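Model it.
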Amino acid sequence: MKCIFCKQDSSNSVSVEHVIPESLGNKKTVLPKGAVCDSCNNYFASKVEKPVLASGEFTQLRFNQIIKNKKGRVPETKITIGPHVVTARRNEKLDFSFKPEDFDKIQEYLNSTKNGMIAIPVSGTSPHNHHFSRFLAKMALEALAFRWLKNDGWNEYIVRHEQLDEIRNFARYPKRNDVWEYSKRRIYDEDSSQKTIGGVKYQVLNEWDILVTGGIDDSEFYFVIAIFGMEYAINLGGNSIEGYNAWLEKKDNISPLYLEKNIT
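Modeled.
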């Protein structure tokens, strides 16, 4: 077994790799031990995933949607209670906890009014494009590997495929502030229930697929993922999103996640 990023022997690696971070609700899309070596696994966790998940946009998303991390905690964020901006942690749907230094302010305000106001931000500052495009690039290569797991020789194919070197190196060994082009658009509301199973509606935390465009001689592979209704797409074969935009135009901007005949 060799690591799909650094290409070094990873036979003794002990960590599995979550294609989508656990902190975004992923429990099942996991690569086996050695697919990503322990060194690269740790690197991505601290240098790629952490800056994205700690950004205002994703901290607020995880707070609003009550997405717990590995330790079972929802991240803290700033909310407004009356005239006060306080730090809050969300435990359950209507259950908040506050820092001791903020509690007296909250109690004083609630005792002084009959109609208290609580304002929770909808979103926050987006992560830097450098970090986020690397985050997508990392997930894209891992998603492709995940799709190939059932095929004999999948590891050798991913490691030796030269057309994947550009995106693997961008994810693992980028130039300073380098950015890989990607698409971002909202395809349904953050709070939407998108799946019905046995007559019960479920909210979709994340969903992804690999889109193949073009023909045999000019095909392109795109990793497409929706996280609470925000769709992102990145090209596995080169730093360009033109082919994806052209595909969308031909398909009346319907997400490939909902046009199954175009998915591989």
